Amino acid sequence: MPATISERTAVLGRTLERQTPFDHLALALTLLLTLAPGLTLAAITLFSVDVATWKTAVLPSGRRLILLGNSLGLAGATAVIATIIGGIGALFLWLLPIHFPRLKTAITWLLVSLIAMPPAIHALAWLAVSGRLAAARLPFGWLAAIWVGVATFAPLAAGFGWLGLRAITPDIIAAGRVYRSDWHTITRIALPLAAPSLLTGGGIIFLFSLLDYSVPSLFQVNVYALEVFAEFSAGHSPAQAFLSALPLLLAGIALLIGLLRPLPHALSRPAADRHVWEVPAQLDGPVAGMGRFVAGILLAQIMIPFAALIWMAGQGAGGSAVWRDTLQQAAPEIGYSLQTAVGAALLSLILAGSAARRLLRASAGQNWLWLGILWPISMPAPLLGIGWLVIAGHWPPPFRALLPVLTLTSRFLPLAVMIMLAWLRRTDPLLFDAALVFQPSSFQRWRQVYFPLLLPGGALAAGCVMALSLGELGATLMVAPPGSATITLRLYNYLHYGASDTVAALGLTLAAIIFLAGGLVIGVTQRGGDK
Predict the structure, then answer these.
(1) By Cβ atoms counted within 10 A, which residue in 219, 264, 380, 392 is the most buried?
(2) Contact 200, 162 (CB under 8 A)
(3) Largest Cα–Cα distance of the chain, in whole Å?
(4) Cβ distance 281 to 103 under 8 Å?
């Protein structure tokens, strides 16, 4: 039986190496969805802008240089703090005794749900807290934007940290504890082995924070990402919008290239089953105490603001009547949001499996495939929406109705591919080999073996895409057809007028939908054997 992660991956790659015509078509459609918006804008800009203008865009000066510095500083501070807090929180989760499986399931559900929670919800929650507690009023500016950014992205860092820690062979930890203290075992063995996952999580957080403008704009911090939206709104020129976004795009691509080395390790197979985790679960002392302290901070970041939202929504004039009226008025937006999110989730699920199987067998010299699939992560959301607007400019009206679904799929398909890749790597390849030996029918193999094995990973990928699509703002704002809006667009518009009881009701509604989706995903995953 293969002993190492690379050997298991090689066996699984050989097992799944047969590519059907559908696999080739799905991979082509995946690359089309991820590359088409950016390449279209690049081609338009290349043929309509002279070389001098390109140089000016690559090297911004004056006001844009200041905005770029603001973006880099804000993203860097948010990524570092969120990675530290999330990493310690992951350590606590890793040390949690195996005798509390329900508690681990609940924490996993919270992590999955909070990762998908849009930044606007966190901003609204903390604005509500600061508005009700005058002595602790959250000041507008950098500190507020960093605080909300950390609250938004710390669960993502905790998720990546937990993946890295779970990939450590428990025997290594047991051997380290024989010769050194628990503190040295953690700092000299566990953290270095989990570093690829932590670095990957920190890099993705930096990228997400760099490209987000919703939280900084709410707290009156001017960042470069907002310049892309303002540039297109002023002149409706796709070429000028692409040029204005070029520094962010280049920074994102450079970061993706840097993540190509640790990313495959971050998505590696867990090293042991649930029974072996009793070894590291015995770790105690200052390390576990620090983990509990940070876990308490994370819990406070969840409970305090959402308790304030519930209080606000119920204490406004009319109480529950205002909540009921708000939901009735927002029913069209809620329905449209669910429609587009479910469409994006289903389309991503259809395509992600084939792309993940191809990445599973990708060699070190095929980094272009990783970059092609992950490129939308490096693009500012408004730029992605602008690219799809240009592509759909000459489509018949019935097909333009699909534009929001295609845009959301293009934006979050890379995440679905990474989730499916991680699930494939954690699947025992001997099960696939046994299916090939004992079940000659391809249809029966898929129905009896492949589909049940891949269903939990597919549910996790589809659920994350759906939840993230519900909270997406930047790209949806560009492609939403006239007369149609999502609940996030309505919420963001109201946020600029203050955190009222109406806004609180909308925020809680969106949060409840995302938590429900997270619960369903975790339920399916647990039934599929998630550990």
Answers:
(1) 380
(2) no
(3) 71
(4) no
Give whole-number Cα distances, 154 to 166, 325, 488, in Å.
18, 34, 21
Which stretch, 15-29, 71-85, 316-330, 413-427, has highest mean pLDDT?
71-85
81, 152 contact by CB (below 8 A): no
Kindly report the number of other CB atoms within 10 A of residue 398's CB atom.
7
Total of domains in the chain: 1
Contact present, 431 and 453 (Cβ < 8 Å): yes
CA-to-CA distance for 67 and 225, rounded, in angstroms?
9
3-state secondary structure of 25: helix
Rounded distance between C-alpha atoms, residue 504 and residue 494, angstroms = 10
The count of C-alpha atoms lying within 13 angstroms of the C-alpha of 283, restricted to the half-sphere facing its C-beta, is 33
Cα distances (angstroms) measured from residue 486 to each of 38, 424, 474, 497? 24, 33, 12, 18
Alpha carbons within 13 angstroms on the beta-carbon side of residue 520 total 15
Instruction: Give the integer Cα–Cα distance in Å for 38 and 380.
Output: 10
* Helix ranges restricted to H, 330-485: 331-360, 367-374, 381-391, 397-400, 403-426, 429-438, 442-445, 451-470, 474-479
Q: Are 277 and 170 in contact (CB under 8 A)?
A: yes
What are the structure tokens assigned to 186, written together? 């953690």
Query: Which domain does 521 fall in, by range?
Result: 5-527
pLDDT tens digits, residue range 310-349? 776 665 545 566 667 777 777 888 888 889 999 999 999 8
Structure tokens that stand for 356 in this block: 């993940």
Enter the tokens of residue 308.
Answer: 């304030």
CATH number for the domain harbouring residue 94: 1.10.3720.10
10-19 CB burial, b ≥16 within 10 A, e <16: ebbbebbeee
d(CA 93, CA 165): 10
Give the separation between CA 340 and CA 405, rounded to whole angstroms.
Answer: 5
pTM (whole model) above 0.90: no
| Spatial contact of 203 and 75, defined as CB atoms under 8 Å apart | no
Q: What is the DSSP string of 183-202?
A: HHHIIIIIHHHHHHHHHHHH
Residues in the chain: 531
Kind and range of the H or E run holding 86:
helix 63-95
Please tell me what DSSP assigns to residue 55.
H
DSSP string, 312-340: HHHHSTTTHHHHHHHHHHTHHHHHHHHHH
CA distance 512 to 500: 18
pLDDT digits (tens, 9 = 90+) for 59-75: 777 788 888 888 999 99
